[in-house]
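Table S2 (text version). Query chain:
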Amino acid sequence: MKKQVLIFSLLCLLILKTQAQQNLLGFRSSENQIKIEKTFDAQLSAKRVGENIKLLSSVPHHLGSVGGKMVASEIAKVFKEAGWDTKIETYQLMFPTPVTRTLEMSGATNYKAKLKETPLKEDATSNQADQLPTYNCWSADGDVTANLVFVNYGLPEDYETLAKYGIDVKGKIVIAKYGRSWRGIKPKVAQEHGAIGCLIYSDPIDDGYSAGDPYPIGAFKNDQTVQRGSIMDMVIYPGDPTTPNTASLAGATRVDHKDATNLLKIPVLPISYGDASPLLKDMDGPVAPKNWGGGLPFTYHIGPSKSMVHLKLAFDWKLTPGLNVIATIKGSVFPDQWIVRGNHHDGWVNGAADPISGMASELEEAIAIGGMVKQGWKPKRTLVYCAWDAEEPGLMGSTEWVENHAAELQAKAVAYINSDGNGRGFLGAQGSHAFVPLITEISKSIIDPETGVTLFERSKASRAATATGASAKKEAYESTQYPLGAMGSGSDYSSFIQHLGVPSLNIGFGGEDEGGEYHSIYDSYDMYKRFKDPTFVYGVTLAQTTGRAVLRLADADALQFDFRELHKTIRGYITELIKNVDQLRETAKVENELVKNKVYVYAADPSDKLKTQEAIAEVPYIDFSSLLNALSNLEKAATHAEEAKKTVDVAKLAAINTGLFTAEQQLLTNVGLPRRPWYKHSLYAPGFYTGYGVKTVPGVREAIEQKNWPETKEQISEVAKAIDKLSVYLEAL
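Corresponding structure-token output:
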């Protein structure tokens, strides 16, 4: 142990020495910044991270609960004691909770679902009062009876398979497996195909005994565990569904929830695989395709079921106070430039992993920064630390705050830095791609507590180990930049970057913390301490990582945006889109040649009947020249911006910095994305059918996927205009 500590210390000293020899990005001299970060690190405590996780996950604390008020109060107390100017901003949020939940099958099989998770003696908080029951928030009220159809993961391609089997879900209730997409996509697609109800369950092949020992022996789902969660169609817009584009303050004008365009119209319920098993065993009809099978001990059939299923759901649709905790330390030089940091505090039940593990790290940062302020240090730019309420029902706390402060944020917010759940494993980061050099530099400055190498090296080794093919492995091993991911949805950064164009980062650790506790009563301190981050050291590592991003942006002489990296990223996206169109054109050519020659192919149905190949529409020529020209202009403008940052004129550099952090707003389009104008960013958005998953250059990409060629051309023009607007903006710096 002493030898390991010595090696760890020597590595840290080596990193500090290397930083001292080479200036940090954005700093004329790095010496003082390195001292500040060393002081910051010294005040971080894994013990205190664990104590805060235990305290804040000690009771259920969903939106509007007694526990939720306690958690917000405790967080505010920590900020105040650390010396932050702290307030609670309250929003009036629509939040439906269950009044009636009935699921039963009658006929050949008679079964009434338990719809309840089992308290365990090994989990001290699993039997508490005030737990939200198992449900999908934003399900419609409904009382429906019909046969059941199994739809695999409930994705659009699964319904294409059903059509080949001649099975229609219109007027039926469907049952889908969790996984392969965000949960809200499953009922959305079911509704589009005429289903009148939807059940979602976690199959043990994905998240249960096939993946690992069930809880409490291991970390994976037992047969009664249920994943709660929102099914709001957030790809239309997040936040309070009754106040689109405006803040949910007291007295706000509201639409009726039944008319909200991001809410579904059918009843939806999540169930355990224990409750799903009798329903699936009752299925009649063809045997499911091999790639549809699961881990339950019987043959999976598509249906319809032999018996009838009755699903009845009713909810209390009421306004509930959402409590955002906002803590501020005013900047000493640039008080009107804000570094905004956030993590949500509400959970579906006790929420130790999601979100308290991330919240505890944010509090560590706040305590350390407060300690430095008490010792005389002051950030040059204002720090705004936020603890969001109502993230789980649909990013409501952050979205309403952003809509309430939109103009001020677009004028003042240098960056938004987000975290959520956290655990043992590898650095994961997504964000604005002008931040690639900053995240790379930070990842090379922090030692991973488990392996003793830098976060960057551990991440690189993992990518190389999992890469397929020699060239991909070689590329991973030789990489010198951290591969910053693109932002989809699913956490509180969405409204900042995709609605306002505020540069954003999302940071967390994981990969060695697998388990099935997500959104269940078992997301508890006991579960977290056993299986997620037993010594809480990754809580400290997250605080170091996000803390460095905050501190370096707060005190930089020249803000660390490098639009040359953004240019490279966009070029990669456009190259990929051109290849996609070429592949579609080649596929159409080949398949239509089969038609011309009357070639027979096997039908994808259980009888394997022969049929002739059907003709498909040819792919027209798509002109990407406007985008390629815009990229060329951006390359020049990005180089100019990087040169402009080298000025020694203090006043000029201050103006350049303002231009740098407001530049991303130029990538917003005036009209937003087709069919969902709330999303305005031309490069990043959640996919229409992927939910949390990102679609890059979404207007163009989704038009190509839908083979909507007129819209493809329109969106190419819109994106080219946005990139050109950014180029002109950067050239003016």
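Notes on Table S2: DSSP finds 22 helices and 21 strands in the chain. Confidence is low (pLDDT under 50) at residues 1-10.
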